[in-house]
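YM 10:42: Short-chain dehydrogenase sequence, as discussed on the call
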Amino acid sequence: MTINKTFLITGAATGLGRALAIKLAEQGYKLSLVDFNEEAGKETLALVKEKNAEAIFIKADVTNEENVKNYVEETVRAFGTIDYFANNAGMMIPLRLLHEYDINEYDRVMNVNLKGAFLGLKYVIPVMLQNNGGNIVNTVSSNSFKPTAYNGLYSATKHALAALTKSIGQDYQDLNIRAVGVAPNTMITNIAANAVHTLTEERMAKLVASTGPNIPATPEAIAEAVIFAATTGADLLNGTVVNCAGGQIFQ
Ligand SMILES: NC(=O)c1ccc[n+]([C@@H]2O[C@H](COP(=O)([O-])OP(=O)(O)OC[C@H]3O[C@@H](n4cnc5c(N)ncnc54)[C@H](O)[C@@H]3O)[C@@H](O)[C@H]2O)c1
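YM 10:58: structure's back
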């Protein structure tokens, strides 16, 4: 079964992006897979092709405006338009107290998680406007509600991306574009692998204490939430952030 709808996914090489791509392939979507990790991105491409998906992989660094322009243009060239956009690429930096961060770490996390997400929106939305609309899911975080300990800069990027989601919900309603934030809490991927090495035992205990009771999610489970938010749930959830923290209450 093929659905004549195109889903563009950034951060498609690993974790949530890959799980989402595989589920969408099973449902018959056309897929444009974007990542700067070419090797793992091509593995995702092979996995979705095994499911007979029509799919392309585009190598791009989401922080680079020319790369972003190019991934949008290549997607349109391949599939004609973009119906759904999973604005998902993201990263973490080592966990520290705010004053311990150096400016390079600040720039890196802001560039990927906020500027990269903004650039995606800046170039995808005009394509959607020409197509009479489209639906966007921004991967935000439980850190969009409340920072976990020693995670101030990452948390700032995810608060800001939640704000962009709400802005789209407010500003584009009559233009038929919807945006939803999907907020995993602890998702079982490798994103935090390089983030926790800075923590002493004492700080680790504080981090654990700042993460209330919740069920860690698989990327496959969060992918289901992204698909619902992008498709059948988009009208209802437009302009909101969906808390996927498995029992931890933030609002
Ligand atoms: N894992 C968690 O606990 C968790 C919790 C909340 C939110 N998130 C968010 O989920 C999203 C997906 O992360 P994940 O957990 O699947 O981790 P992941 O590291 O497996 O996936 C992130 C992907 O983004 C790509 N990426 C990073 N920087 C990029 C750049 N400059 N250009 C292009 N691609 C780039 C990586 O190569 C990778 O494929 C991120 O936005 C992350 O912030 C994760």
